Amino acid sequence: MAAQNNKEVDALVEKITGLHAAIAKLPSLSPSPAVDALFTELVTACVPPSPVDVTKLGPEAQEMREGLIRLCSEAEGKLEAHYSDMLAAFDNPLDHLGMFPYYSNYINLSKLEYELLARYVPGGIAPARVAFIGSGPLPFSSFVLAARHLPDTMFDNYDLCGTANDRASKLFRADTDVGARMSFHTADVADLAGELAKYDVVFLAALVGMAAEDKAKVIAHLGAHMADGAALVVRSAHGARGFLYPIVDPQDITLGGFEVLAVCHPDDDVVNSVIIAQKSKDVHVSGLHSGRAVGGQSARGTVPVVSPPCRFGEMVAEVTQKREEFANAEVVF
Fold it and tell me: Do you know which Gene3D superfamilies this protein is assigned to (predicted)?
């Protein structure tokens, strides 16, 4: 079995390396048939379950992976900017969000994040104010959360790029509900301090701090300034999906001043993994608390790697229905 897994991993790394080389040769990463075809092939190769642990690949493969993630980030930014401009041409851009080819993925990811928060944050969530770090020119995550799950919540969206924020704000110009609850700020998360204490939940986008050490610094900064009891949602990746997005070690989240409550690795079209954590006055940035995470441990014990709540709910509903049908059925001898 180990030999079979090694062959599978070697074949996958060889394929991804070839795709990286082809993508790196493209004259532009702006949307085009050639760009779309290569990235579609890349995602198709990375999404299925795989035995690969990208964190254990050799130096050459690691260098390739880091370069590929940077290319994915650049291409994603150009794709979002392209569609943001296209949507902004409509009188009410929010009526046409389905034009974006991956909009349903945002719907599913935001639903997953909301359900994980509701399930694992003690007492549930009813946030008055949420921050989204790394919102980009198409802030679909904030929109879906605001429109479908958190109808009374104010959203502050932060991005390093002022142009991205200008594009994003235009999408909400005709909306008097969600638009009134959205604000956009051009800032580096490292420059935010007192502002962070006012948020009940902070979302950290997958591509904020792409290198592991940079991500750990961002998380530690959030841990130093977020309010006790506030929730943190970190987007990560798992398995071969780590060729597309950075992988966040839950240990870094605990050392950053949080208690990790749950880790979820979807196996469907939701590409990102989701880590739910909570800032606690008993967990300090120094990592010296007695409940410090070691080898997957937290202040509450082993961090649960959980299935998506939506699937669990569907399973429970199905079992309940079967039981009711059985209970109501006529017994014939």
Answer: Vaccinia Virus protein VP39
